[in-house]
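Researcher: We plan to redesign the surface later, but first we want a full-length starting point. Tokens attached.
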């Protein structure tokens, strides 16, 4: 279970406003091997964490490039999965390395959507003249959609599915971003949102989608921040892109599979085309 909360504002009214404010949790088995966020690739152009699970190395759940390409992935909650399906983490890393614009890339992926277990994929291009953000979920519409300016929430169902945990997270997120805080305070307040452990129960929508798989554990998964033995929220990520193309990328990640050990790293750079 993961959560993505974001405000997309491609034409902010003032130079102090943000074109993108994104706050995301990666929920995963604590001991699944992964690299913490850093620049990678031959040119050092792409910034993300990396999955190091055998057979899935090089995939990622969230990343951004200095050229303004951004992508994020969540799995779609299903009672069972196909062990022979293609790995979903490559959907993000391939876009970050590709020259296709976000809509064209998602349109290509939509033609191959049946080869994967359920997923949601956000992809965006932040450019000098125009910002574009698109969404595709292979358990929803057959073609990707362009996102209008606004505040959105995505968990392990389709974009804006009104799960109670997602609605609660959006309320907390909206309250923070509407305060026009300085960047350091904004990041800290968003980290507080991502670590909210208040269960939002009951939630028939999660139970109906997850069926028997989720019934026994829904009480552990029904908060913005998931905490259960061996599985839960192990990475918080905040991405800010301001009106001038300055990017701030903050990752708070768990160390040694220990919920009491965390490392926070911040990267700043300027977008270029």
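Model: Full-length starting sequence:
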């Amino acid at each position: 279970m993961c959560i993505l909360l974001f405000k997309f504002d491609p034409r902010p009214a003032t130079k102090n406003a943000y074109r993108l404010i994104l706050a995301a949790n990666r929920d995963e088995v604590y001991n699944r091997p992964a690299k913490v966020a850093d620049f990678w690739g031959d040119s050092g152009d792409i910034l993300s964490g990396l999955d190091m699970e055998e057979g899935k190395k090089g995939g990622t759940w969230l990343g951004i490039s200095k050229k303004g390409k951004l992508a994020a992935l969540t799995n779609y909650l299903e009672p069972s999965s196909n062990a022979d399906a293609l790995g979903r983490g490559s959907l993000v890393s391939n876009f970050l390395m590709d020259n296709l614009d976000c809509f064209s890339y998602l349109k290509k992926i939509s033609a191959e959507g049946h080869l994967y277990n359920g997923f949601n994929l956000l992809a965006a291009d932040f450019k000098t003249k125009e910002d574009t953000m698109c969404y595709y979920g292979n358990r929803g519409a057959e073609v990707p959609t362009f996102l209008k300016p606004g505040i959105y929430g995505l968990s392990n169902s389709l974009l804006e599915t009104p799960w109670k945990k997602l609605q609660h997270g959006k309320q907390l997120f909206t309250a923070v971003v509407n305060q026009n805080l300085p960047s350091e305070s904004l990041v800290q307040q968003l980290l507080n949102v991502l670590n909210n452990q208040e269960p939002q129960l009951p939630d028939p929508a999660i139970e109906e989608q997850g069926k028997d798989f989720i019934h026994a554990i829904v009480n552990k998964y029904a908060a913005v921040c998931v905490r259960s033995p061996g599985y839960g929220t192990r990475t918080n990520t905040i991405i800010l892109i301001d009106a001038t193309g300055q990017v701030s990328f903050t990752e708070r990640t768990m160390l040694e599979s220990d919920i009491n050990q965390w490392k926070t790293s911040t990267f700043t750079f300027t977008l270029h085309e």
